[in-house]
Amino acid sequence: MRRADRLLRIIQILRRHRRPVKGQSMAEELEVSLRTLYRDISDLISDGVPIRGEAGVGYVLGQGYDLPPLMLTTDEVEAVMLGLRWVMRRGDRDLVRAAQDAVAKVGTVLPGDLKSVLTDTALLVPPAWKVVADTVDVAALRRAIREQRKVAIRYRNEAGDESERVIWPIAITYFDAQRLIVAWCELRVAFRTFRTDRMVEASVLPDKYRERRAVLLKRWAEEHEAEEVVPGAGDVI
Fold this sequence. Notes:
By secondary structure, the protein is of the alpha+beta class. The protein has three domains: 3-61, Winged helix-like DNA-binding domain superfamily/Winged helix DNA-binding domain (Arc Repressor Mutant, subunit A, Orthogonal Bundle), CATH 1.10.10.10; 74-120, no CATH class; 138-227, SH3 type barrels. 43% of the residues lie in helices and 22% in strands. Strand 3 and strand 4 form a beta hairpin. The N and C termini lie far apart (51 Å).
């Protein structure tokens, strides 16, 4: 690996973590000696990169520092394209359009030697032939999650029984065949997941739910971990 590429990788590693990263961990990922790693970090600091920390404690990248946009490697471009292709196969209409726009934007700013990766990559996503059609506007539900708003739904379970309830949507799980809304259910006073293809109606309410979404999502994850249940699979109704 060229030294210039290695310096960029160090910055990328630090960007990837919120907490201090041990020098030994970075050296192992870069496949260099710890001494070389420390010298590289010293050079970056001398060049004005706001890296804080010290040997034996770990390093963090100061806030406000960023690399020039889209300095991507071939592997990174392939990873981005694989993800965007999956979204174009599995996302709702607005998400599909957003993925297509993202591909166009990436293509306009990539250097010439990487543009071909957008169209010639060998990483493919299988056809979405098993996907169940949504019966509600998933884009509206995504906005409700971002804005932390309650949603009133009329829901039909697997047996065909309908119920009306108010939920606090906190996440969407995308499976190969369907999408699940992870939510706190006011009716059951517990976390539940709801298939979007079983929602008869869904209306976003003006009311915001009381707890922060991040806190609710953490609680949901902890409950599933404690129960040793695959997230999003064991409590579908």
